[in-house]
């Protein structure tokens, strides 16, 4: 009987993860489709490399930094669903509005608004997911969600690429992304109706104190911040491809789709490995993905394809393992706050790294590459220190 109860609980948890994964799939079609062309779009509207780097970095700063507030509010109010729905609404509908942007400054504001919406909804959503992944395995549960997420991240750039191929019109590419935005909100409302209390999916509660965060959490955050600082944002990479003619305009979203496809596979594979052997997996993958920078910024199209695949491997491992580890470190009552703090530190590091790499891009590609590689290798060292964590 106990075995049957566990099987039913696991099946229910998987269904919840899959349903939220479906939300993320449609959402990623929307905003990852947009992000695959925002760099070239800003370039066409007259922005400089420095402006692209700062806008991308500022978007990530707000997109991660505001999670400190939204995470704390979600834990305090327990309104996880309301906060998640509000965040997704802002996150998604900022995208089709870019079709109306005639100046790069307006497009930049909408890019930042999209990131703010993501900041509002992510800690609350991840806290709800963490309850389900207790039954499925943390790494595999978050990896499954990330894999579904990245199916959308592959489809979105391909849709945008097709529109650009057929019409060569950026506003039309942004406008068509209103369709998956509506589908994502519909799937989210269905999840809210079917699973109004996700906390009940976590039957075996971890024996952790709800007060405070452990020392390992802060060391882990330091490693994640180093990884974020050295990881170039795609708008800057796409800006480089456009400016230097590395790839035709309509092929740039395809390169992003390649990275997202690799991301999906990496999330599942490395999430499962994390459940078995711990953070040594993240240390190894971070070292491997650090090689993306010289390939995308110094090579031609073949090197760029390999570099984007390595970039996708790094993203997939980070997106599955980073969230899974936090869930296992922290009491359920503190997870919204823990995810908020973690993402704030991650986002500040991403902003500083992105802004600096934007400046370095205009000054010296060699300096940009050296910074990216060295900082990510520093992250490898931090993750290796914590390699026993699962």
Automatic annotation (TrEMBL):
Pfam families registered for this protein in UniProt: MFS_1
Localization per record: Cell membrane
Which residues, if any, are the signal sequence? Answer: none
> One MF term in GO for this entry?
transmembrane transporter activity
According to Swiss-Prot or TrEMBL, what is its membrane topology? Multi-pass membrane protein
| Keywords per UniProt | Cell membrane, Membrane, Transmembrane, Transmembrane helix
- Recorded coiled-coil stretches: none
Q: Output this protein's name.
A: MFS transporter
Q: Which organism is it from?
A: Candidatus Thermofonsia Clade 3 bacterium
Upper lineage: Bacteria, Bacillati, Chloroflexota, Candidatus Thermofontia, Candidatus Thermofonsia Clade 3
